[in-house]
Automatic annotation (TrEMBL):
Keywords per UniProt: Nucleotidyltransferase, Transferase
Protein name as catalogued: GGDEF domain-containing protein
Superkingdom as given in the UniProt entry: Bacteria
Enzyme class: transferase
The protein's Enzyme Commission number: 2.7.7.65
Species this chain originates from: Amphibiibacter pelophylacis
Keyword Transferase: yes
Length: 593
């Protein structure tokens, strides 16, 4: 059954595959870019939050420094003149710490300058008042002067709260999730401040050996209420907030210590001092003892504030580091993803598609009997393709074998086994083709050759010698004519020479040449006998002659050569010659031997 091949697709493999490859690369790129963008945003937020929290911590440190500066200031104003120099130095050191903290806080470039300027002004004013009060002789120093100076320092802290609020609002606006951080730290900062203020309200009058003014009593009560409120607002530490607190204690433990030591014991201390309406004589403790005990009670509150702030900064720095690691890891994964997808496509193209297409081309060539010029490049291919290439090589090898065999069979089919000349069938094919051709270079002329008295040779020397004679005459004729002349065994002891393109006269010349050559050849038999043979030649041919006619005319000529005595050449002038007499008649025929 004849197979019908389907029509070829209009699309090549390359055309089908490349849009998918492009989509795959684009999708991978989008995926990778999406991942990097998302982690990039997270990192941006974490970095921004960490920066804001660090700035907020610096700002709160300055608030704390302003609070802390009041302690040495109070002592300087009320202490004995003998201790003045050393207390002045302490106060100056406290001022230096406040100034340094304010300078660090002012590095937050977004902070409105006027807010900071107002704080600095108020601080200067308070410090001038403190200095003035401290320089006044003790007998001239009124409690009011001291309280005014302290109030001026309170005002500096109050003004500074605008800075703290500004930064906390800024921080919450950029990420509402860190609102609790702002609230907790502001609350702790406030607790520290109001605890200090409470101490100031009590210590200043006792130090000056005065009954506590009503105003101070009211302020103390208000401040205690405020401290209670702030403590209530301070979210309790359930577990830990993360970040690093004290090495030994967790923030929850610091919270508990501050509650016990300050909120319970410290406030109880204050309560005892306030008994009996602030009457100096009724007070439980003198200035020195109260100060020592109250400052000690405040310490855990201060520690809680410091540890909380440090833990928050640590936590946000850690989050920033984590986000950076995630961003770098995502970027690395994204690069690997895009890179490996691109490499995959390149490898697929180079190591699969191209070798497959090459294999396909070789197979197509094989189907069209075109053998590959080189063996398939098996080395360096993947295992499956190595097998395919090896199979192609095997098929190509078999095809090469078959085509060699086919050529041999074809040759055998057209070759005479005894003499190695082409056989009658092949001669007929060539002669027939030449007779049909219109080109003058193809015009066929046939020389028929018959060995004379061959039967006698057989009879006298034996059949094998007869065969030898046939082989040697055949070889001689093959050597004598041109390569493109066809020498064939016509049958038995008859040979034929097909000459194309020559005139009949030239064919006759060739026949004469052959006749002489045969006549002059000596054949030596295997038993050393030398013998000679002759042959008769009939020549015919020409344009527009049918091949069968040419054979017939040549045979007639051969017959005439035989009957004329053998060992000679005879020519038959054909019908065509008679149709075109001028062409052939003008050519003088050679003398026939
Ligand atoms: N040895 C051998 N003899 C062959 C072969 N083919 C034909 N012959 C012999 O060739 C001889 C031809 O003899 P004839 O046709 O009588 O002609 P002749 O003896 O050559 O005499 P003329 O042709 O008249 O000169 C026969 O005896 C054939 O047997 C062959 O392949 N080998």
């Amino acid at each position: 059954m004849k197979s019908v091949s389907p029509p070829l697709s209009s699309k090549s493999l390359h055309q089908v595959l490349w849009p998918f490859g492009l989509v795959a690369v684009l999708c991978t790129l989008l995926l990778a870019a999406g991942g990097v963008a998302k982690t990039g945003q997270t990192y941006d937020l974490a970095r921004n939050n960490a920066t804001q929290v660090r700035q907020f911590a610096a700002i709160l440190e300055a608030a704390n420094a302003i609070s802390a500066e009041r302690g040495p200031a109070n002592v300087l104003m009320t202490a004995e003149p003998s201790r003045y120099e050393s207390l002045l130095l302490k106060w100056h050191n406290a001022q230096a710490r406040t100034d340094a903290a304010l300078k660090t806080a002012s590095l937050t470039r977004t902070l409105p300058r006027d807010l900071l300027d107002r704080v600095t002004e108020q601080l200067d004013q308070g410090r001038r008042r403190v200095l003035a009060a401290s320089l006044r002789p003790r007998e001239q120093l009124a409690y009011r002067d001291v309280q005014m100076a302290i109030n001026a320092m309170f005002l500096a802290w109050d003004n500074y709260q605008r800075v703290v609020l500004w930064q906390s609002r800024h921080m919450i606006q950029s990420d509402p999730a860190i609102a609790s951080v702002a609230i907790r730290n502001m609350t702790l900062s406030g607790l520290r401040e109001y605890a200090g203020r409470l101490g100031s309200y009590l210590i200043a009058p006792i130090s000056m050996k005065e009954n506590m003014p009503l105003e101070n009593q009211i302020n103390s009560r208000e401040t205690m209420a405020r401290i209670q409120t702030l403590w209530t607002l301070l979210p309790a530490y359930v577990g830990d907030i993360g970040g690093s607190a004290d090495r030994n204690l967790s923030l929850a433990q610091h919270y508990e210590i501050a509650r016990q030591v300050y909120m319970v014991q410290g406030l109880a201390l204050v309560e005892r001092q306030l008994r009996d309406g602030g009457e100096l004589s009724a007070m439980a403790l003198d200035a020195e003892s109260f100060t020592a005990q109250y400052v000690a009670a405040m310490k855990p509150l201060e520690t809680l504030r410091n540890q909380n702030l440090a833990a928050v900064v640590d936590k946000f720095n850690h989050r920033q580091d984590q986000a950076l690691i995630e961003l770098l890891a995502t970027a690395l994964i994204a690069t690997l993803l895009v890179g490996s997808m691109s490499v995959l496509l390149i490898v697929m193209r180079r190591r699969v598609v191209q070798p497959l297409l090459h294999g396909a081309k070789v197979i197509i060539d094989l189907s069209e009997n075109q053998l590959p010029s080189q063996p398939m490049p098996i080395q360096g291919q993947v295992r499956e393709l190595q097998r395919l290439y090896a199979a192609i090589d095997a098929v190509a090898g078999k095809l090469a074998e078959w085509s060699t065999l086919t050529r041999q069979f074809e040759k055998l089919a057209i070759t005479d086994g005894l003499t190695g000349l082409v056989n009658r069938r092949n001669l007929d094919e060539l002669g027939f083709k030449a007779s049909l051709s219109v080109r003058s270079s193809d015009v066929p002329h046939l020389i028929l050759v018959d060995i004379d008295h061959f039967k006698a040779i057989n009879d006298r020397y034996g059949h094998p010698v007869g065969d030898q004679v046939l082989r040697e005459v055949a070889a001689l004729m093959r050597r004598t004519v041109r390569d493109n002349d066809c020498v064939a065994r016509f049958g038995g002891e008859e040979f034929a020479v097909l000459i194309q393109g020559n005139s009949l006269a030239e064919a006759a010349i060739v026949a004469r040449k052959l006749r002489r050559a045969v006549q002059n050849q000596t054949i030596v038999t295997s038993d050393g006998q030398a013998l000679r043979v002759t042959a008769s030649f009939g020549v015919a041919g020409g344009k527009n002659e049918a091949w069968a006619d040419i054979i017939r005319y040549a045979d007639e000529a051969l017959y005439r050569a035989k009957t004329a005595g053998r060992n000679r050449v005879r020519v038959t002038r054909t019908q065509s010659r008679q149709r075109h007499p001028p062409l052939l008649q003008n050519i003088p025929l050679p003398e026939l031997g």
